[in-house]
Amino acid sequence: MLTLASVIFCRRILNIMNTPADIIDHAYNYIVVIFIGIPTVFLYNMVSGVIRSLGDSKTPVVFLVLSSIINVVLDFFLILVCKMGVAGAGWATVTSQLISGLTCLIYMYKKYDILKGDKSERVLDRRFITNLCMNGVPMGLQYSITAIGSTILQAAVNTLGSTYVAAMTAGSKMFNFTCCPFDALGSTMATYAGQNVGAAKIKRLGQGVRSAMIIGSVYSVLSLIALYFTTDYIALLFVNASETTIIALTRQFILASACFYIPLTGVNVVRFCIQGMGFSVFAISAGILEMIGRAFAAIILIPNIGFMGACLASPIAWIAADAFLFPAFIHCAKKLNARHNIKSN
């Protein structure tokens, strides 16, 4: 359903987002292919998640690395040899995701007999579906709400023109690369919190948050220093050297974000910790605050101060979320302590 809707309404979505006329055809050629490949994303994420839940966290990474290598090779082949342009980049991504998902699936069924199941286990069970939805929908909403805020922001940047779109795209690529450790900290804290709540070791939650914040803060400072000296050179991976305006804007965007990586650490560490503690509503509320922060930048800041408003959008979102998350974490920890004391007595 998601694939059909996004493919059918792809161009209309791009028009609603004020995509500049000089790049809308290229944008459509790329994103419609990505939309076609949505099932491949579902496949890999589902299968790799099952493999990780069985205690094997290395194999999905191996297949992901394989997928990345295939993606790069296909990029060169489809764009340079087959002359497919930006659509070639889309097909390279989708194909590599499909290969990664299928190889994970084949490995899973050959490696784990417990997953093969019998006929009775292949029948849909309403209880299992309900349980999956109760656990998965809150987390899905959390990501969706954050994505909505980013989409509103992108639509506002599109009104500034293709130069600013290119700068934000290049800056976002750098951001996604440098922020992998924050994502890892978040995933770690979700597992850490769940394990300690299950073991009734509530005091360890605060220790874990402090330790993760220290790790993230040290990395934040080091990455800011590294980006300050290397941003212009990294930008050349995405932008021609003659595009000095785009390079300058890219530097402005990524450094504005990097200055606030410590608040971003807080968002990832505390939000996923709260999620692992079982209080998903609070995690969703933080996502709503992030969305409001980005919407504020899109509606108020960008029309008044231009591209700098886009640069400040994420920092505003992170600070707004942190202002809610840290008190929420203390509240949740107290509730768990109270429950544990009642059970103990």
Number of strands: 0
How much helix is in the residues?
A: over 70%
What shape does the CA trace take?
globular
Return the string of H and E elements: HHHHHHHHHHHHHH
Structural description of this entry:
By secondary structure, the chain is an all-alpha fold. The chain is built from 14 helices and no strands. Helix 3 runs parallel beside helix 6 (85-111), helix 9 (180-198) runs antiparallel to helix 10 and helix 12 packs antiparallel against helix 13 (280-305). The chain starts with a helix and ends with a helix. The relative contact order is 0.09. The model has no long low-confidence stretch (mean pLDDT 89).
Short structural summary:
With 345 residues, the chain is mainly α. The protein is 85% helix and 0% strand.
